[in-house]
Amino acid sequence: MLAAEFEGDIWPVNPKHVEVSGLHCYRRVADVPGVPDLAIIVTPPRTVPALIHELGTKGTRAAVVITADLDADHGLKQAMLDAARPFLLRIIGPNTVGLIVPSAKLNASFAHLAAPHGGIALLSQSGAIATSLIDWAAENNVGFSKIISLGDMADADAGDFLDLLAGDPETRAIVMYLETIPNPRKFLSAARAAARVKPIIAIKAGRHAEAAKAAATHTGALSGADRVVDAALRRAGILRIDGLGELFDATETIARFPPLERSRVAIVTNGGGAGVLAVDRLVDFGCELAELSPETTRALDRILPANWSHANPVDIIGDAPPERYKTTVEIIVQDAGVDILIVMNCPTGLASPVDAAQAVGLPCAGRDNLRQARSDMLVGRPDRSRRSSCASRCRTGKLRDAIGCGPGCFLSRQMVESAGVAGPCTPEPKRRSASSAGLRAIHFPESGDRRSPDAH
């Protein structure tokens, strides 16, 4: 709290101390000079119910219970809820990492880093996943409006926070990690309402029986049948993804790019085979291949070799120099039927990939209308098959547009990213990918039933 420079009053309470971190420490909640808006409880489990009652009597309306082991077997969980009920005091947790609200300089958690301010809200039932995302976000310049570690959800649960975040003007998108859904009816009702106004992306762990059993030991609750959960999330308009890598991809995508009503994709490549493989994977994930307008086709005819593909993917031939990339991109981004543009480069000895990357960035950096109207351009280079080790380190999730590990690849990426274009392939741990999860994440309608593309 002090490190975050919280501007309100902070009142430590502990009967064994007179001072904590330079602040006067009070022996009892009743001794605090004011009414705390929020209490943070980090005390032995047996003390929690009495503290909740004291806080309720004082007038406190919310508490973050970081303390673990308040389970039903000991009766402490129910005693805590019974103590809170007469005062309508809401509880986050127990067994939670805490709550972070960057705009309020509030860090009521034991996360290892302060979270930067931004437009993404994170709800996580796992404290470890929450802190991992905070760590990743700090390195990738992604900010949060709220970070809420749900813990055991004895009282306030994911449905309650979805209701809150749906109307939160600071939150543009919601990211969730869930292991259980304790009140499915309330959760789905809140999710449907929230998904109509902003994108929601979720990992629901416990897809297999073994993982569900592990989740039960972790949170003390059972995961639902995965097929039922999957159908329910899809119907509610939540984009479900499977792994933490995809969660990072999707989070970065929604942080940087606005949602799209459609995902009509055009591909520019100097390698026909790479373009065909990209089409297969795009269709797998619900993206729609754009049909180039007659005007676009005629314009491309004027600047491309006679043996270009004359269709999407736009194969500009293996000897494509930087100027050919630049003019092709300039033409295609003006096509109203194209929502997303993927530009691919297969390294050859005939042209420099670095020069190609620089040329692709110029239309966006030099002309505001292109940069703003087509800020969702995705630029990558396909992997060379002989570099399997490179492909495993440099990847874009399931699209696998790995960019190679030669000296030009990093410079190429830096050039397109500095121009405001998404560079989808960064060797781990610094991932900046536009993977399948990223492509699906930007495919959200502006209003109405927000479903993943697979649901259409």
How does the overall form come out from the CA principal axes? elongated
Low-confidence residue ranges: 217-223, 364-412, 424-435, 445-456
Largest sheet: 7 strands, mixed
Radius of gyration: 25 Å
Rounded to the nearest angstrom, the distance between the terminal CA atoms is 46 Å
Strand content: 5-15%
Total number of strands: 17
Second CATH tier, the architecture of the largest domain: 3-Layer(aba) Sandwich
CATH topology of the largest domain: Rossmann fold
Helix content: 25-40%
Name the average pLDDT. 79
Please state how the strands of the largest beta sheet are arranged side by side: 7-6-9-8-10-11-12
Describe the structure.
It is built from 16 helices and 17 strands. Helix 5 links the parallel strand 10 (173-178) and strand 11. Helix 1 (48-58) packs parallel to helix 2 and helix 4 (158-166) runs parallel beside helix 5. The chain has a 7-stranded mixed β-sheet with strand order 7-6-9-8-10-11-12, sandwiched between helices. The chain folds into 3 domains: 1-92, 3-Layer(aba) Sandwich (Rossmann fold), CATH 3.40.50.720; 96-256, Rossmann fold; 258-455, Rossmann fold, CATH 3.40.50. It starts with 18 loop residues before the first strand and ends in a 15-residue tail after the last helix. Residues 217-223, 364-412, 424-435 and 445-456 have low confidence and may be disordered. With 456 residues, it is an alpha/beta fold.
